[in-house]
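Troubleshooting: if your tokenizer reports a length mismatch, compare your output against this known-good record of 562 residues.
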Amino acid sequence: MELRHYAAVLWRWLWLILLGGFLAGGSSYLVSSSTQPVYAASTTLLVNQAQTPGTVAYNDVLTSQQLAKTYGELIHKRPVLEAAISELKLTTTPDQLDKSLSVRVVTATMLLELTAEDTDRQRAADVANAVAGAFIAESQRVQLGQATTSRDTLQQQLKLLERDIISTSADLDRLRASTDSRTPEARQAEISRLQSNLSQFQLTYSQLLKSDQDMRLAEAKALSSVVVAEPAIAAANPVRPKVMQNVLLAVLVGLMLAAGVALLIEYLDDTMQSSEDIQRVLGVPVLGYVVRLKKKDVGQLASLTTQSPRSPVVEAFRVLRTNLQFSMLDRPGNAIMVTSSSPKEGKTTTVVNLAQVMAQTGKRVIVVDTDLRRPSLHRYFNLKNDVGLTNALLDPLALDQGALRAIGVSNLMVLTSGPLPPNPAELLGGSRMAALIDSLKLRADVVLFDTPPALLVTDPALLAGMMDGILMVVDSSATRADGLARAREALERGGGSGKILGALLNKLSSRSGGSSYYYNYQHYYGHDRDADTGNGSSHGSSNGKTGKTSVPGPSGDSRKTM
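Known-good structure output:
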């Protein structure tokens, strides 16, 4: 039942939900279409961790992955950004450039994806490639910074040794070629000394040269390399705004928000819109449903039973009539009061139509206007209100002297309010009213009393104890739970406890759950074009050979039907 309830609520507010989706989608389309497109270009970098001899290759892979994350952070540093700006001669600042960059480590790999965004597709690719190149150069510079000092010192020593070797070799050659005054023994001793020094210089040079080669090899092994695996190229399509995706998401969000608003409205709305609401507040069933009529049809309500006897509205009153009869089976008496909690809920039109459909079954029906403040029954039947209930209360013989009047419909009599008294409550709550009700019950099979709203005046509560049954008319779009509950309490305090037979749910919209009978009736009788002309069977009294029945309408003209 909960799912059906929610489905009914969403169906009732379908227009609002669709409107919310349309407005959200339209707004998203306008904003997305007017937004300048942004392009993205990505450069893929491969990070290789230095291989340390004797370690397991799997550990090197893990270290490379961790190093890739570190490099991903270093790309955003100022030296890299400044180098890229200088290379491309950009006018932007490092902070602005950084906001257009994003770095992602490809999961379970040693790859870095460097993405640059720009409103110009080619510039986005150039920025991505320039930042990647600047980062590679900066990474190598930082890693080689400490080893460069040691290698420079070693190179200086090699140059000195090379100079010493050349100088010693030259001295040795000159000594061998010269014929100075020294003895042969002295010359040989000098030659031996120079040869020893040369050998020592050559040995030291060989050792330093080997150290330089070993240092270069160690640097190559210890250096973590970063290379471009795939350079960035200009993108064909922008990454944002994605117009269709934004529109679809906006439509979805709009539908959800509108649906939420609809459910919130329903949650906060305590009007009586279903039989479950009536049962919860009044504790009685709904005996009938009447849909909301168009404005042009409201003035014809009093004559619908004779003009359009097969219309859905008239059928609704027939259903009400039948349900009332079943409700009165175990109750003695025939006096039924029709009231509502507030004005303009349709109780008078209910009395008028209910009386006519009851009279069509052959029952003798009397309609009494007990609203001694703002009577309206006489206008529906186009009667003068110079004599009526107040006259009958003063003189019971007034019923037979014109106060109780026929209106041209078989089996139906009307007792209007008559002249308005200064003390309505005292008249309606006195013993004379009780006696008049008993007298009217003897004259008819059913006596219907049209009363004022139960919350405005005390008259309905005074009459409730004199009635055999009470019918509550409820406006589905206006009657609130609190007002209906207070009306019930007022009637029960006046003696109407247990006398409320049920309710008529009036002015239902076409989407309300209680009006499903309307569609079923239309489907069943929709193709019967003779229904509204009265062919086949006639209701009411006939007028000569034509079989027309004349019923005064509320505007004063004489309504005729077949």
